[in-house]
Structure formats: C-alpha cells, structure tokens
Write a structure and sequence with these properties.
mainly alpha, Growth Hormone, Chain: A
C-alpha cells in the first residue's frame, strides 16, 4: 500500500528517524578499530584479520534481504518496522562489547575465530535495526523532493554520528600520550571503550525507535495479500526487486562503489597515522572537513535534484568522490606534500570537504531514488517492498565491502606492513605501497559513476508512476464472477 503520511513532515520527526543512522555510524566508526586492535595491538597478521572481518560481511549479505522481506511482511500492533528496531538494541550493544573483549586465554587461531564470530553477529544485529529503519524512511513520504529531504536529514545525522565517534575515539579513549601519538596502540584503553560506545549506541537507537512511533499507524502496514515469510515468498520478493531495471543499475554501481570504499576505509587509519604521521588529536580535526562537506551537501541536494534530477546528481557526486580522496595521497607519494609540509592538516581538511560533500550527496540521492523505485514496483506488482529494496541493495554492498576489507588486509600484507609499528619508523617503500593502493581504489569508483549515469529515475518518471498509482487506487474493484449454473 502507498504511504499515507502527508508529503511535508515535521523537522522533529525527520531528526528522530535520522538518529538511527547516527547510532549506526558510531557503531561502524568504532568497529573500524577492530583491524588496528587485532593487528597492531594483539599482533595478528593483517591479511588474516581482514579475512576474519570479511566473513561477517559475506554472512550479512545474505541476512540483509531476508530481514527486509521479513520486515515487509510483518504484522503486529507495533507495525512492521519497529519490532525489529526495538529488538536489535540490546544485541547490538552486547556484540560490540564482545568484539573488543576477547578472552585473554585465546591463542592466535582462537582470536581470529573470536573476531570472525563476534563481528559477524554485530553486523547481523545491526542489520535487524538498520534495514527496517531505512525502509521506514523510504515510506515516510510520497513526495519526490520530500523524500530527498528525509534522506538528507538521515545523511546529515550520519555525519553527526561520524563526528561523535571520531571525537570520542581520537580525543577521549585513544588520545595521544607523550610517548604514544596513537593511543589506539595501547591495550589498556580498550576496556572502557568497549563499554562506553555500545551504551551510547543503545541509547540513541532506543531514542530513534521510540520517537518515531507516531509513524506506525500511518505507514507501517504490510501489503494487501502479503503472506508470512517463507523461502518461496522470500525468493519472489527478491525476484521482483531484481526485475526493475533502475534497481539493477544501482546494484552494479554499488558493487564498484563499495569495493572502493571498502579498501579506503580499511586503510584510512594507517594512512593518517603512518603516512601523514598525524597524532590522534590532529586526526580528530578531520571532523571540520566532514562538517563542511555535509553542510554543503545538505544545502544543495534538493536544488540539484530539482534541476539535475537524481540521475546526474548521483553521477557527478560519484566522479568527485572517486577522484578527490586520492589527490592528497598521490601528492604525498610524489613528495609534493610531506608530514613536514606547513599547514598540512589544513590542506587535508580542505580536501575532506570535497570528499564528504559528494559522499553525502550520493548517499542521499540513492536512498531517495530507492523510494521512487518502490513506487515503480508497486505499480508493476501491487506490492510495496521498501524493506527488500533497501536490503538487497545492502546485500551487494556487503559482498563488495567484504572484498574491499579483505583487499585492505592483503595490501597491508603485500607491502609487509610491520606489526606493532610506531609512526615515523615505517620504511618509505612500505608507505609508498600503502599510498598507491589507496589511490588505486579510484578506478572502481569511476566505474560506479558510469552506472549511476545510466539510472532513469527522474521527476517525469516519478510523476508518471504516481499518476498511474492514483488512477489504479481510484478504479473500482472488478465485480466477482457469477457462480456457474449447477455449481
């Protein structure tokens, strides 16, 4: 059924919804320290740590669409999204704590198994919240630009979560000491971190679920005729989602985009700490670049969607996001920039503005376009599938992120990055290899941009679909056939 919510939503409701993404950002920023914790603190080989982390992403790739289909078909007095959102809160906090709290009696193999299992569970329980939560955002409004506004708030709260997590990790839990510029290399810092972060995340997740309860009677109803979840119904849901040409284009774009971000995210802490030799206090100033980028994106996303539509906004954002992050690293490789360059931190922050602005634009654009694609599938199949559409997208994203994470671990192994290394002591050939690998991730990002440019989600297609849906709803139901004589 179509969303009943008025097209213009209150600011408070948009923020309440978006809080869930802030909590997700804090969780995943915190989880990025798993690589450096298990590699540099506990001394496990980086390639093996990357492989252990990627296991969870592969499992999550299958679990995501299952949760989406289950959510679409759920009937309860709490709607079809909120039971999952409330149910995930405690498991998320517990799994995060366990991931950073391995038993001290475990050997190297035991630690890898512990990492693989706890990280896998963390990703699954985050899916239980995140997939229904995104689906809720996709069905909160039926207006073309208001959908962009909902997702712009959501993306901006992603920045808020990133900022909170960055400041907490780099300036509080892992603040530099006189003899240790990267406090994340100190094993004594992790117990407090492993308790505080999940408590903060749980509180924010609860606030988002609680303050969006007003949407339950308005949008959270399963499609008419939707049965309970089964293997057959699940397969049908996925098949209908994949039958949409625009959706397939988005998936192929996401495959390449996630490969790029997976590699870069896995190497980001190493580049900042070892290549640029910034301490954690300096790295925390990156939030200024993030803020500038997200504010810029929030200001221009609706005008861009109104004048360029979502297709060309996504294309341009993907090109800029693929290219800009590689520029300062290549300048560092060619020694144009060095750790001794005056104003280096300010230069890097300026590049970050033009890194996070296109990322924010792209994220908002795609999540808004998915709501339009849900309209197309409702017109074609008579079912709204926000849960499946957002989750099957994540299926492919998780697969490629798994590969990206594994590649990041392989890169660290190939360049022979030393265990328990100190900034300033890593040889230049190792750092040069690290920089080239980070920059090479641009290539799959450019392939992603080409696919985004072929997407056919425009204001015209949206209006045609909404008009057809309105006509179908106004059409009287066909009379039941008369009983046959002698029946």
């Amino acid at each position: 059924m179509s969303a009943k919510v008025a097209p213009h939503l209150s600011f408070a409701l948009k923020v309440a919804f978006a809080l869930g993404t802030a909590a997700e950002s804090i969780t995943f920023i915190g989880a990025t320290f798993l690589m450096i914790f298990y590699n540099q603190v506990l001394g496990l080989p980086p390639a093996e740590v990357g492989a252990a982390l990627s296991v969870g992403l592969f499992v999550n790739a299958v679990f995501d669409p299952l949760v989406g289909s289950w959510s679409d078909r759920t009937r309860s007095r709490f709607g079809r999204r909120h039971p999952f959102m409330f149910g995930a809160i405690v498991p998320v906090a517990l799994c995060f704590y366990l991931a950073f709290s391995p038993p001290s009696t475990l050997g190297p193999t035991g630690l890898l198994v512990w990492l693989a299992v706890t990280n896998t569970l963390l990703l699954q329980v985050m899916t239980i919240f995140h997939t229904p939560h995104l689906a809720l955002g996709g069905e909160m409004s039926s207006d073309y630009l208001e959908r962009s506004s909902v997702m712009a708030h959501n993306t901006f709260m992603m920045f808020v979560g990133d900022t909170v997590a960055t400041l907490l990790t780099l300036r509080v839990f892992f603040a530099p000491a006189p003899n240790l510029p990267n406090g994340a290399l100190d094993p004594a810092r992790y117990p407090a971190f492993a308790i505080a972060i999940p408590l903060i995340v749980a509180a924010i997740l609860f606030a988002s679920a609680w303050w969006t309860r007003s949407t339950i009677p308005l949008v959270s109803a399963p499609a008419a005729g939707a049965g309970s979840l089964s293997l057959r119904s699940f397969a049908g849901d996925v098949r209908r989602a994949l039958a949409n040409r625009n959706y397939l284009v988005l998936l192929f774009a996401l495959l390449f985009f996630s490969l790029m971000t997976g590699v870069r995210n896995g190497l980001a802490l190493y580049v900042g700490s070892y290549f640029w030799r910034l301490d954690n206090n300096q790295l925390s100033w990156y939030v200024l670049g993030n803020l500038g980028g997200y504010l810029l994106a929030a200001a221009v996303v609706k005008p861009l969607h109104a004048h360029l539509d979502k297709r060309w906004t996504g294309f341009l954002a993907a090109v800029v996001y693929a290219v800009v992050p590689a520029v300062p690293v290549l300048l560092g490789y060619w020694r144009v920039l060095t750790p001794a360059t005056p104003g280096l931190l300010a230069i890097l922050i300026a590049f970050l503005v033009f890194q996070h602005a296109p990322y924010s634009l792209l994220t908002t654009t795609i999540r808004s376009a998915l709501a339009d694609i849900a309209d197309e599938n409702e017109l074609r199949f008579g079912l709204r599938q926000e849960g499946v559409l957002y989750s099957v997208r994540t299926f492919f994203q998780r697969i490629d992120s798994a590969l990206g994470t594994a590649f990041a671990g392989m890169v660290l192994g190939l360049v022979a990055f030393p265990d328990k290394a100190r900034p300033g002591e890593v040889p230049w050939p190792v750092l040069g290899g690290l920089a080239l690998a980070y920059a090479a991730a641009t290539l799959p990002g450019l392939f992603a941009a080409l696919f985004y440019g072929t997407m056919r989600v425009t204001r015209e297609t949206y209006e045609a679909t909404r008009d057809a849906l309105a006509a179908a709803e106004a059409r009287p139901p066909a009379p039941a056939p008369a009983a046959a004589s002698g029946a």
